[in-house]
Amino acid sequence: MSQMPQQAAVSKCPSCEEPLEPGDRFCGACGYDLSVVPARPEDSPTLAIHGVVPGPDDVDWPVARDSDGHGHPAPVHAAAELPGTDSGGSPLPPPPPAAPPSAPAVPVAPAGAPATGVRFDRPGEPEEYPLQAPDPRLTAEPAPVPGQAPAPEPAAASRQPAPAAPDAAEKVCVACRAGRVDDDGYCENCGHAQPRERDHMEQESGPIAAVSDRGLRHHRNEDAFSVGCTALPDGAPASVAIVCDGVSSATRPDDASLAASRAAGETLLGALPRGTHPQQAMHDAILAASQAVNALADEPATAREQGPHQNAPACTLVGAVVTAGLLVVGWVGDSRVYWVPADRTTPPARLTEDDSWAAQMVAAGLMNEAEAYADERAHAITGWLGADAYELEPHTASFKPDRPGVVVVCTDGLWNYAESAEEMAEAVPLDAAARPLHGARVLVGHALDGGGHDNVTVALLPFPAPSQGAGSA
């Protein structure tokens, strides 16, 4: 911090040691500018002499700012004596009148009167917390004993009423198990932040299941999924799973993935019972998901959050439909579908191709897969759902496996730790088709054990689709 120059208060020139006259601004011998010499401070530090520090009576203490200049402090005001306003700016109501000095400290109810009590922290509100009338023999103040210090008052905590227990319909804090959780996700009692609903999600629908987890590095879960079962017009069962991954560099990626997964899942579950071919239904579901994500760009919430260098809400999508003899997959982006045979006697397979920079390099023959995915640009996606996406090109494919197995639908938060089909098959439990929820939990745990650098979402569908009601208990 800069300071203004001060006039010298020294007897000799700091440059040539020549004597100075009071009031000199320049040295008469050498012309040294004496205004740059700081004045001697008015106060002196208190130094210890032989280990002894002078007492307060030996030191010129500065006068307190809020005193009357004679060592007496300024008047102290209680909070109730000063004007105030509430959060809306309206004046606060005047405090209740103080009790007269002659009033007893604890009121004693007359004989036959109904028992009442007083809240210690809110005088003047005797009806809010009714208490039993105290016994005068126990509450009467004893006569003071000469030379004995007065008894201390009870601690403030013991005089405060116990917090009311939250209603059954309200969320209870996971930390203290007593306080209510407010709309911001914090406990009103202890202030502990509550885990968000999407940090970890699990769902089991008939024979299929999905698990999504925030991971170990991200501050929120930007993945979403939708799973469900239905029946074709001939009564044959059909299972549906949609998994979406929000694009972190876009605005509201968590909202985008949620909107896309819901729109695609509802479209599929509505089209299949009407007889729409599963592959056409998957194509239409991706278009519906795209429209749902595009609509987010026009919402006020996006306008408030979107900066000049941000993108509109965006996400990737991958899905699968399993029927008695047909497996249909669809995708936009870099989430994947794997096929793992139940008997493990035939090799597993990856059923999708990424919309990514690495996949383009491999397809063009410029790099092999190991080189492309080792590049820092590997995960730059070239296809996504969103208002600023290029021309939408939904990918769909149909397969007819010749044996039972399990279909793995996942985001890159999982396949980054099991990239090849063989690595994914090793991570999938042998009983995943019979216990899909357990299998999905195991796969999420595999990603978390590997580092959990991203959100992790996986859905498992047994093939062929078992009859309704089958699956894990």
Polypeptide structure, described:
By secondary structure, the protein is an alpha+beta fold. It has helices at 136-139, 156-159, 253-271, 278-296, 300-305, 357-363, 369-374, 412-415, 421-427, 436-450; strands at 200-205, 208-213, 223-231, 237-246, 314-322, 327-332, 336-341, 349-350, 385-386, 395-399, 405-410, 456-463. The chain has a 6-stranded antiparallel beta sheet. Strands 3, 4, 5, 6, 9 and 10 form a 6-stranded antiparallel beta sheet that branches. The longest helix has 19 residues, at 253-271.
Major β-sheet profile: 6 strands, antiparallel
How helix-rich are the residues, as a percent range? 10-25%
Strand order of the largest sheet: 1-2-12-11-7-8
> Count the strands?
12
Throw out a few tags for this protein.
single chain, 473 residues, alpha+beta, 19% helix
Fold topology:
Elements: H1 136-139, H2 156-159, E1 200-205, E2 208-213, E3 223-231, E4 237-246, H3 253-271, H4 278-296, H5 300-305, E5 314-322, E6 327-332, E7 336-341, E8 349-350, H6 357-363, H7 369-374, E9 385-386, E10 395-399, E11 405-410, H8 412-415, H9 421-427, H10 436-450, E12 456-463
Antiparallel strand pairs: 1-2, 2-12, 3-4, 4-5, 5-6, 5-9, 6-10, 7-8, 7-11, 11-12
Helix pairs in contact: 3-4
Describe the structure concisely.
With 473 residues, this protein is an alpha+beta fold. The protein has ten helices and twelve strands.
